[in-house]
Design brief:
Elements (H helix, E strand, L loop, with lengths): L1 E5 L6 H11 L9 E7 L3 E11 L4 E2 H8 L5 H20 L2 E2 L8 E3 L5 E3 L6 E2 L19 H4 L10 H18 L13 H10 L11 H10 L10 H5 L2 H4 L3 H17 L4
Antiparallel strand pairs: 1-3, 2-3, 4-6, 5-8, 6-7
Helix pairs in contact: 3-5, 3-10, 5-7
């Protein structure tokens, strides 16, 4: 089975996204592109659709919604490890995602996690290519991407992906977007204050020290101090946990959501 992603006529991101997916064809934990359906008007230069690998568990955003409750640390560790392995492979290819969030992390029935939706992605010409353009989803942008002028001397596009993953991971743990009070509308001004000037999110007392430290290292406001993907893969929250057991716990959540009939 395949998933079909449709594009509006004239969508300039379609060809770029297909090219990036081809470049990352061998990257682990990245959704696979099987074919491009050309537009009748624009031909192969203007794809009408992409035939993508089907991920039957849907997105993590959908899983959280269907469960109706936060996720525990064990399945979250499986998400974090696999997303980091995907980012590690992408970054080795000088690809930055720039829109990592729960709705762009897809699930297999066995608890496999894959990064999807490369419409905001960019291939860097050099390691620290500025590429701070305002693309992607504002709520998950790092401080230096949200306000490039204020952080012009401290920008690393790879570190920006780490921030986004940290926000997503904390959202899975809390069950709601973590940088604003529950129910507050995430408008531009509120997000600016929270992301660039707000205090670190307060975590429940039940959170382990490993989880707290992992998230805090992702959500370091200064990009130069933020943990790298490699450092996070060696963090105790990931490295000192049974990866297979964590993935099984994530697969159990996918099965639970499927049994609810809402998948």
């Amino acid at each position: 089975p395949l998933a079909l992603k449709l594009f509006a006529s004239g969508d300039l991101s379609a060809a770029r996204e297909a090219e990036i997916l081809r470049l990352a064809a061998d990257a682990p934990h990245v959704v696979r592109l099987h074919a491009v359906v050309p537009s009748a008007a624009g031909g192969v230069e203007e794809p009408a659709a992409q035939a993508l690998e089907l991920m039957p568990g849907g997105s993590l955003a959908g899983l959280l919604r269907r469960l109706g409750r936060p996720m525990g640390e064990r399945p979250i560790a499986a998400v974090a490890r696999q997303a980091l392995l995907g980012l590690e492979a992408l970054h080795a290819l000088r690809i930055v995602h720039r829109d990592l969030k729960p709705s762009n992390l897809l699930l297999g029935a066995d608890g496999e996690v894959k990064i999807a939706d490369f419409g905001a992605c960019k291939v860097l010409r050099r390691r620290l290519d500025p590429c701070a353009s305002y693309v992607g989803t504002a709520a998950y942008m790092s401080p230096e991407r949200f306000d490039p002028e204020a952080y012009s001397g401290d920008y690393d596009p790879y570190a920006a992906d780490v921030w986004s993953l940290g926000v997503a991971i904390l959202e899975l743990y809390l069950g709601h977007f973590p940088l604003l009070p529950v129910g507050q509308r995430p408008d531009w001004a509120a997000l600016m204050c929270a992301i660039c000037f707000g205090e670190a999110p307060e975590m429940p007392a039940a959170a382990s020290e490993e989880f707290r430290d992992f998230v805090s290292r992702c959500l370091e406001k200064k990009a130069g101090r933020r943990a790298s993907v490699g450092e996070l893969l060696e963090h105790p929250f990931i490295a000192e946990r049974d990866a297979a057991d964590a993935q099984r716990s994530l697969a159990a959540l996918v099965a639970e959501a499927e049994q609810s009939g809402d998948l």
